[in-house]
């Protein structure tokens, strides 16, 4: 599996990084690629890193904060107005996605949520603990603790015989162990070095639990300026454009 970081920033542009977006593609076993989260700046990142937007068949969302889902209106409008998309785009998100996505589109581009286009946008809302399968990819959500107007999830995604897990944004909850257990790649929020920030994950807490989680690889993302300045040794520190193959 090949995963490229299209964005690993926090909501506030720390380090000049794009908002959260991971792109998985380039496996012969997968019919096209998918995104994990699609933050407000993600279409710009898609262009910057040369990703073909029409190959993205699914966008999996952890939670409905703008830096994790706010890029969808632009991705959809690009398919309609620029890239000539015809294949459906599936959006798999937490309960509330079917309401929040058109609401975001209407605020940003009035009339866009009901515009005629040559492809369908299929929204699937996923409940924690109930796996969803789409495009050869199986995703299971776990409930996290991160208020965002809708349930916040971590995702365990299985594709082409590999597992990539992502905590999304959350403070420590025990289910992070299940999300990341033995994963080929665990992407985890590492917001601060050790300073607790409510509803976010600090590196000291995560590190204490790493032996129970046991991921094969760990990549830290959504880092504050202090984490960007002091990335932990021995683990992957996310950077925009970074490619991880596993
Ligand atoms: Zn968030």
Task: Give the SSE map.
Elements: E1 2-7, E2 21-25, E3 33-36, H1 42-48, E4 56-60, H2 66-69, H3 72-81, E5 89-93, H4 97-108, E6 121-125, E7 132-134, E8 137-143, E9 153-159, E10 162-166, H5 175-180, E11 185-189, H6 203-213, E12 218-221, H7 225-229, E13 236-237, E14 243-245
Parallel strand pairs: 3-4, 4-5, 5-6, 10-11, 11-12, 12-13
Antiparallel strand pairs: 1-2, 1-14, 2-3, 7-8, 8-9, 9-10
This protein binds zinc ion (ZN).
Report on this model:
- The chain has 246 residues and is an alpha/beta fold.
- The protein has a single domain, classed as Metallo-beta-lactamase, Chain A (4-Layer Sandwich), CATH 3.60.15.10.
- It is built from seven helices and 14 strands.
- The termini are close together.
- It binds zinc ion.
- Zinc ion binds next to loops.
- Residues 18-222 form the Metallo-beta-lactamase domain.
């Amino acid at each position: 599996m090949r995963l490229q970081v299209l964005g690993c920033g926090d909501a506030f542009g720390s380090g000049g990084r794009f908002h959260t977006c991971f792109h998985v593609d380039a496996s012969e076993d997968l019919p096209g690629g998918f995104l994990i989260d699609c933050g407000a700046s993600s279409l710009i990142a898609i262009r910057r890193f040369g990703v073909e937007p029409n190959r993205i068949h699914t966008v999996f969302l952890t939670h409905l904060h703008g830096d994790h889902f706010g890029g969808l209106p632009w991705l959809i409008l690009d398919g309609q107005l620029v890239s000539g998309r015809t294949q459906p785009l599936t959006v798999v998100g937490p309960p509330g996605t079917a309401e929040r996505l058109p609401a975001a589109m209407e605020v940003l581009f009035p009339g866009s949520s009901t515009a005629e286009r040559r492809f369908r946008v299929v929204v699937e809302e996923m409940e924690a603990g109930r796996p969803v399968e789409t495009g050869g990819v199986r995703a299971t959500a776990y409930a996290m603790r991160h208020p965002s107007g809708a349930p916040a999830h971590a995702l365990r995604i299985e594709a082409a015989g590999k597992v990539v897990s992502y905590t999304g944004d959350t403070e420590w909850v025990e289910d992070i162990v299940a999300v990341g257990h033995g994963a080929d790649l665990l992407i985890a929020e590492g917001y601060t070095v050790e300073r607790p920030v409510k509803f976010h994950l600090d590196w000291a807490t995560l590190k204490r639990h790493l032996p129970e989680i046991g991921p094969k690889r760990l990549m830290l993302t959504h880092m504050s300026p202090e984490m960007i300045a002091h990335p932990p040794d021995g683990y992957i520190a996310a950077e925009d454009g970074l490619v991880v193959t596993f």
